[in-house]
């Protein structure tokens, strides 16, 4: 697949508590060096009001008080580099079941300031609790004991992705669904007996119906227990058949990760 614009649509910054301290300019300079003509900074949005981060380190998102500074810094970079590269201001927004109204209110406030955002699922609702599906192998193992099997986690994950696709989050709902197979992050350590092909194909039909894009994420290729993109190539090919726009994303949390997996996913097709 060839694209007229070489875009990395999924980049984090030093505002991410679980990232690095690389400057925004470091990411931009690396992108320019690699020949990208467009990038989107998509920092993890503040978690919705009333939601408590269930990860042990509680570092899943930018702090709400830091959000204005983040937007201002990307705006400054956008202007400074305007003759070298197109820069989009965005967020990676967590879809969290049960907090749709809070997410909608946040997007109504901040959406007008954003150019390009992603809607992702990291947290699964389990009765009254929420579990982060991609935090660590140890936490995933704990989830298996709670849910009954890895398959049950997969099923819950894909159900939640479907809910995110159809959720009414207002006029500023992100137009791109993030890494729809993130649940595969630990698949080499916790294999499942089902491939979920029919479930994923139906998800693609839902994404097409809602006129959404798909994040084609290279980060999973470099995760030791995943070793495939999010989603894998067969899903990308099926998405192409359905005429769903695939937007490459490095999911970089440090400048050197810009472009990771690009040649394998998009650059040589």
Automatic annotation (TrEMBL):
PHP domain span: 8-217
Domain of life: Bacteria
GO CC terms in record: cytoplasm
Enzyme Commission number(s): 3.1.3.15
Pathway: Amino-acid biosynthesis; L-histidine biosynthesis; L-histidine from 5-phospho-alpha-D-ribose 1-diphosphate: step 8/9
Keywords: Amino-acid biosynthesis, Histidine biosynthesis, Hydrolase
GO biological process, one term: L-histidine biosynthetic process
GO molecular function, one term: histidinol-phosphatase activity
One family name in Pfam for this protein: PHP
Top enzyme class: hydrolase
Catalytic reaction list: L-histidinol phosphate + H2O = L-histidinol + phosphate
Family from the record: Belongs to the PHP hydrolase family. HisK subfamily.
PANTHER family listed in its UniProt record: HISTIDINOL PHOSPHATASE-RELATED (PTHR21039), HISTIDINOL-PHOSPHATASE (PTHR21039:SF0)
Protein name, per record: Histidinol-phosphatase
Organism: Niallia nealsonii
């Amino acid at each position: 697949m060839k694209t007229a614009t070489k875009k990395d649509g999924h980049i984090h910054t030093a505002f991410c508590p679980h990232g690095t301290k690389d400057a925004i300019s470091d990411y931009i300079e690396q992108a320019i060096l690699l020949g990208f003509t467009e990038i989107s900074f998509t920092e993890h949005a503040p978690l919705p009001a009333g939601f408590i981060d269930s990860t042990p380190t509680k570092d899943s998102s930018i702090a709400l008080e830091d959000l204005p500074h983040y937007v201002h810094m990307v705006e400054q970079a956008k202007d400074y580099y305007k003759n070298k590269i197109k820069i989009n201001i965005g967020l990676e927004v967590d879809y969290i079941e049960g907090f749709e109204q809070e997410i909608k209110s946040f997007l109504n406030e901040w959406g007008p300031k954003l150019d390009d955002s992603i809607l992702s699922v990291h947290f699964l609702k389990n009765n009254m609790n929420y579990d982060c599906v991609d935090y660590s192998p140890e936490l995933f193992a704990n989830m298996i004991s709670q849910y009954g099997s890895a398959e049950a986690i997969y099923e819950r994950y894909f159900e939640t992705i479907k809910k995110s696709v159809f959720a009414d989050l207002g006029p500023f709902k992100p137009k791109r669904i993030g890494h729809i197979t993130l649940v595969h992050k630990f698949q080499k350590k916790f294999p499942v007996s089902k491939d979920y092909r029919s479930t994923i194909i139906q998800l693609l039909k839902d994404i097409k119906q809602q006129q959404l894009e798909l994040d084609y994420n290279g980060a999973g290729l470099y995760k030791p227990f995943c070793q495939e993109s999010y989603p894998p190539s067969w899903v990308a090919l099926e998405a192409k058949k359905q005429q769903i726009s695939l937007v490459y994303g490095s999911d970089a949390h440090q400048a050197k990760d810009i472009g990771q997996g690009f040649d394998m996913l998009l650059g040589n097709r």
